[in-house]
Amino acid sequence: MADTVMWFRRDLRLADHPALLAAASQADGGRVAPLFVVDPALWGPAGPSRRAWLVRSLAALRAATGGALVVREGDPVDVVPAVTVQLGAAGVHVTADTGPYGRRRDDAVADALAATGDGVPLTRTGTPYAVGPGSVTKADGTPYAVFTPFSRAWAARGWPAPAAAPPSGLRWARTLAAGDLPDEPDLGGVTLPPVGEDAAHERWQAFLDDGLQDYASDRDRPDRAGTSALSAHLKYGEIHPRTLLADLAGRRGTGAESYRSELAWREFYADVLWHQPRTAREYLKPQMAEMRYAAPGEGFEAWCEGRTGFPFVDAGMRQLLSEGWMHNRVRMVTASFLVKDLHVEWQHGARYFLRWLRDGDLASNNHGWQWVAGAGTDAAPYFRVFNPVTQGEKFDPDGAYVRRYVPELAHLEGRTAHQPWAHPEGYAHGYPERVVDHKVEREEALARYGEVTRR
Ligand code: FAD
Fold first, then answer.
1. Separation in Å, CA 325 to CA 76, 162, 177, 432
2. Overall average pLDDT of the 25-49 stretch
3. Residue 330: CB partners within 8 Å, gap ≥ 6?
4. 287: how many CB neighbours lie within 10 A of its CB?
5. Which residue pairs, CB below 8 angstroms and at least 24 apart, start in 8-11?
6. Whole-model pTM?
7. pLDDT by residue (tens digit) across 294-313?
8. Cα of 364 from ligand 1 centre, angstroms
9. S-S: 251 plus which of 125, 256, 277, 362, CB 3.0-4.6 Å?
10. pLDDT at residue 297, as a whole number
11. Average pLDDT rounded to a whole number, residues 361-386
12. What is the pLDDT of residues 148-192, one digit of tens each?
């Protein structure tokens, strides 16, 4: 009988957890020591919403383990071997991290564990995805570069059923002091929904009951609560996509199909990042790095603060600041505005999003940005310059979304909220004038694109 360590990272749950089962199996009647390491390299760049989410999720996991979760702060390369040696544990178990930093860190931790007196192994079981990044390839073994064929091959490959519940005999080790959770940051008025594994399941159940049926049509409407709001739960692994896919399997209709496809986007971007880790920061299409861009100046600041004078864009940026979340349609429109109307490189916007989003995820965020910027996985992308006014009128037809987040426009009725310049009282409550002329900047963006594609 030997104790083992279950080192939790982006898998803050007990259900459908293959790595936890592996830890319990190796312990074989012994105990499992649940561990979380607050890594300054990840905690540092995270904004208040993500930090608060993590602290609450750890509190939920601690409660679920009967108070046994050990929390330490420091570089995992030092902390994990130190805890393992203190416990005399026979093995350390993790869910594989497939991002660039996590892969490097885990290799370094595995080396450090191997160098301890007893040469303890680091065992990686499963990933945060239904299909492990790198597993879906074309017949010749090369990765997919375009979403649709990837998603077909991904669905055809399939995924395992959810893992069994933890064994009833599982005992948590309580040898070490549990340690304090990090202090919650000042959320500055941001309100988070309930956090943790139970909350994730409740949200999912509520969505299955009330949202899935109309998801295919409502998912593009930021004025409605038409999406699942599961992204932060998925980011922290409070629920696994395999669990969601298993529940969807028994349901027919466009809602289930459409939801599966959105999960496939998450898997696709993780796959692209797995094959090309450099694309976390660099252009997937290198020629796009040659385009003329503007340094982030006053326009960028106005964008960050939701003061561009374009109501749909400003509503989105203010939703981000007030909720730590933004609707997907509006993420696309605000991102397009920064890159194509203000000509600022996507990395500046991606960094800002990652700071403020509670679901901030390197693969989905940075490849979502590259896609919008025409620098990523889309086939004929750059000509798609979103019109920030017509997008608003189409997807927020009554202006309700704009009025909810932009109080200076709350007096404008219906879709007038999207065009304050067309109303005599449009600027009566201090709403700013437009920082650019969209028509002019659209032409400018296309001209700049022409310069790099003609070379
Ligand atoms: P739902 O519509 O309910 O979708 C269900 C799940 O599918 C989501 O929770 C998410 O895991 C996945 N998903 C849906 N759309 C996408 C997509 N386009 N790409 C990848 N996965 C998707 N998503 C993040 O999780 N983290 C990010 O940091 C992030 N940054 C983004 C940045 C930009 C510029 C863009 C255009 C998109 C970004 N997305 C990101 C994708 C998407 O906007 C969010 O996943 C979605 O808005 C989350 O809300 P939801 O859970 O209600 O989504």
1. 29, 28, 35, 23
2. 94
3. 222, 312, 313, 315, 316, 319, 401
4. 11
5. 8/34, 8/35, 8/36, 8/61, 8/69, 9/36, 9/94, 9/95, 9/97, 9/102, 9/237, 10/95, 10/97, 10/128, 10/235, 10/236, 10/237, 11/95, 11/128, 11/237, 11/240
6. 0.97
7. 999 999 999 999 999 999 99
8. 7
9. 256
10. 96
11. 88
12. 999 999 999 999 999 999 988 899 999 999 999 999 999 988 999
User: Which among 177, 166, 183, 244 has a CA at the least distance from the CA of 6?
Assistant: 166
Helix (H) / strand (E) containing 405? helix 400-405
Largest CA distance in the chain: 79
pLDDT at 181: 98
Which residues are near ligand 1 (CB < 6 Å)?
219, 227-231, 234-235, 262-263, 265-266, 269, 328, 331-332, 335, 353, 357, 359-361, 364-365, 368-369, 372
pLDDT on residue 282: 95
- The C-alpha atoms of residue 339 and residue 369 are separated, in whole angstroms, by 9
**Alpha-helical runs (H) found in 28-128:** 40-43, 48-64, 76-87, 100-114
CA of 266 to the centre of ligand 1 (A): 7
Q: What is the mean pLDDT of residues 226-233?
A: 98
The whole-angstrom separation of Cα 25 and Cα 21 is 6
Q: Hey, whose CA ends up nearest to atom 32 of ligand 1?
A: 365
pLDDT of 231 strictly over 90: yes
User: Which pair of tokens denotes residue 181?
Assistant: 């959770």
pLDDT in tens, 403-426: 999 999 999 999 999 999 999 999
Task: Output the pLDDT for position 193.
Answer: 97
Q: Which residue bears the tokens 């100046």?
A: 297
Atom 9 of ligand 1, nearest CA residue: 231
**Residue to mutate (ligand 1; options 325, 364, 369; most atoms within 8 A of CB):** 364
CB distance 319 to 351 below 8 Å:
no
- Nearest-CA residue for atom 30 of ligand 1: 365
Residue found by looking up tokens 């696709």 in the block: 268
What is the distance in A from the centroid of ligand 1 to the CA of 226?
Answer: 13
